[in-house]
């Protein structure tokens, strides 16, 4: 029996953001992040990539004298960048396999072998498409909710006494980030759909 599907989530709360997507299970605050299951190899690797992203961004901001970006948004940016790049790489890895099987079928080479590969290949592509669709849905839900996007600004919320006082324009930065990753994931999805068809 198949395990239940893990649907990705980014959930803003009063003083933190709960994240469950890909290898990340984390609680993000305005000044720290708590990652669950850090001993798992994939989680350890992903966290290393996030740390690298944070160091690079910090160095760039210092080099160009830019105002420091809010920590929580950098962490979300890094996590989304990691997953988006991983999905793009996975999509690119599928392409030569699909082309090889199709070439075998076109050239009538090892017909039965190629035909036997089609079903698991299609199932793998469908499963991958579902993961990308789940990420897209999560991003769309966030982008459709101005209040949630505003609540992702933990650093700004920590500065004010009443979160109601937050400038509604603060969600623009979050929306731009989410839109960027949504576009990137749409490219991966389109490639998957083309391979399935």
Question: What's the SSE blueprint?
Answer:
Layout: E1 9-12, E2 17-21, E3 24-28, E4 33-35, H1 41-63, H2 71-106, H3 111-143, H4 146-151, H5 154-159, H6 171-196
Antiparallel strand pairs: 1-2, 2-3, 3-4
Helix pairs in contact: 1-2, 2-3, 2-6, 3-6
Explain the overall architecture.
With 197 residues, the protein is of the alpha+beta class. It has one domain (9-196): Magnesium transport protein CorA, transmembrane region (Methane Monooxygenase Hydroxylase, Chain G, domain 1, Up-down Bundle), CATH 1.20.58. The protein has helices spanning 41-63, 71-106, 111-143, 146-151, 154-159, 171-196, and strands at 9-12, 17-21, 24-28, 33-35. A 4-stranded antiparallel β-sheet has the order 1-2-3-4. Helix 1 packs across helix 2 (71-106) and helix 2 packs parallel to helix 6. The longest helix is centred in the middle third of the chain and has 36 residues, at 71-106. The mean pLDDT is 89. Keywords: Ion transport, Magnesium, Membrane, Transit peptide, Transmembrane, Transmembrane helix, Transport. Its main location: membrane.
Q: Can you summarize the main beta sheet?
A: 4 strands, antiparallel
Count the DSSP helices. 6
Number of domains: 1
Distance between the termini: 27 Å
- CATH third-tier fold name: Methane Monooxygenase Hydroxylase, Chain G, domain 1
Structural class: alpha+beta
The amount of helix comes to 55-70%
Q: Which CATH class applies here?
A: Mainly Alpha
Which stretches are poorly predicted, pLDDT < 50 over at least 5 residues?
A: none
The succession of helices and strands, N to C, reads EEEEHHHHHH
Going across the major beta sheet, what is the strand order? 1-2-3-4
Shape: elongated
As a whole number of angstroms, the C-alpha radius of gyration is: 20 Å
Q: What's the pLDDT, averaged over the residues?
A: 89
**Fourth-level CATH superfamily:** Magnesium transport protein CorA, transmembrane region
The number of strands is 4
CATH architecture: Up-down Bundle
Measured by DSSP, the beta-strand proportion falls in 5-15%
Pfam families: MRS2-like
GO molecular function, one term: magnesium ion transmembrane transporter activity
Protein name: Magnesium transporter
InterPro entries: MRS2-like (IPR039204)
């Amino acid at each position: 029996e198949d395990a239940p599907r893990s649907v990705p989530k980014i959930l803003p709360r009063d003083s933190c953001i709960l994240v469950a997507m890909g290898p990340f299970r984390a609680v993000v605050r305005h000044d720290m992040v708590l990652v669950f299951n850090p001993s798992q190899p994939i989680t350890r690797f992903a966290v290393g990539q996030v740390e690298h992203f944070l160091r690079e961004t910090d160095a760039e901001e210092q080099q160009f004298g830019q105002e420091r970006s809010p920590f929580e948004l950098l962490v979300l940016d890094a996590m989304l960048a990691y997953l988006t790049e991983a999905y793009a790489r996975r999509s690119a890895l599928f392409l030569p396999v699909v082309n090889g099987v199709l070439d075998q079928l076109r050239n009538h080479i090892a017909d039965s072998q190629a035909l036997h590969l089609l079903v698991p290949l299609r199932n793998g592509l469908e499963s991958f498409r579902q993961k990308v669709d789940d990420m897209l849905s999560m991003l769309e839900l966030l982008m459709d909710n101005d209040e949630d996007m505003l609540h992702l600004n933990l650093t700004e919320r920590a500065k004010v006494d009443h979160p109601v006082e937050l400038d509604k324009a603060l969600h623009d930065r979050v929306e731009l980030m989410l839109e960027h990753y949504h576009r990137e994931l749409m490219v991966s999805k389109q490639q998957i759909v083309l391979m399935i068809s």
